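Pipeline run #58 for the internal structure catalog. This entry was flagged by the ingest filter as a single-chain record with no existing model, so it goes straight to prediction. Upstream metadata was stripped on purpose; only the residue string is passed forward. Reviewer on rotation: M.T. Logging verbosity set to normal.
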Amino acid sequence: VVTIHIQNSMLVTGESMYSKLSLVDLAGSDGVLDEGATGERVTDFIHVMKSLSA
C-alpha cells in the first residue's frame, strides 16, 4: 500500500484543502476464492474488497 497525502493552502483566502490517495497492488487477489483459499487469506481479501467499495 502506498498512500499519498496532499495539502494545499490558498495564501489569499487562507482556505486549506487536504486529499489522500491510497494505491493498493491487488495482483493475484482476483482468484483467491476460486483457488479454495481459507483462513487469514480469505479474511484479508474480504477486508480489502469491502474497503474498496466504501
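catalog note: The longest strand covers residues 2-9.
catalog note: The radius of gyration is 18 Å.
status: ready for reviewer M.T.
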